[in-house]
Write a structure and sequence with these properties.
The protein has 164 residues and is an alpha+beta fold. The protein has a single domain, classed as START domain (Alpha-D-Glucose-1,6-Bisphosphate, Chain A, domain 4, 2-Layer Sandwich), CATH 3.30.530. The protein is built from four helices and seven strands; from the N terminus they run βααββββββαα. A hairpin with a 6-residue loop joins strand 2 and strand 3. The longest helix has 20 residues. It is globular, with a radius of gyration of 15 Å.
Amino acid sequence: MSDLPTYVLERTFDAPRALVWRAWTEPKLLKRWYGPNVETIIHSHDLKAGGAWLLEMKWGGNSNFQRADYTEVTPVERLVWLHATTDADWNIIASPMMADWPRVLETVVTFEEDGERTKLRLTWIPHEATDAEITAFTAAVEGMGKGWESGMKLLEELLAELQA
């Protein structure tokens, strides 16, 4: 597994861990920062191991459907899910934007207390991927930060607002 390409995002927020956790797990907060520059619609959010988060990102006349199947939920410390692009019926499909993109990514998010601040670490790793999917993921790793960083900026603003 260590030979698989891994995307890593690390960020420290000026907010307590419980608040950062809430922003990642409460649908009304999550939809405010997840998916920058699109309308994020959370169709379902069952925060438990074996539960699923079903979301739609809308822009213009387009929709992108995704599902996250939670495999581990350790409150205020760790979230693990299998992340996939789906059709409107939540069936996993190949990405319509990138043919060889991994059908499933394992996502791990950890929340570490640092005084009144929170250190967040997110990793994405192709899950049960083909060689072509691993190659596509490897080629995209360097550019993945742009989208995630836009979301992290919105999350930072949300956390500041919630603390004001």
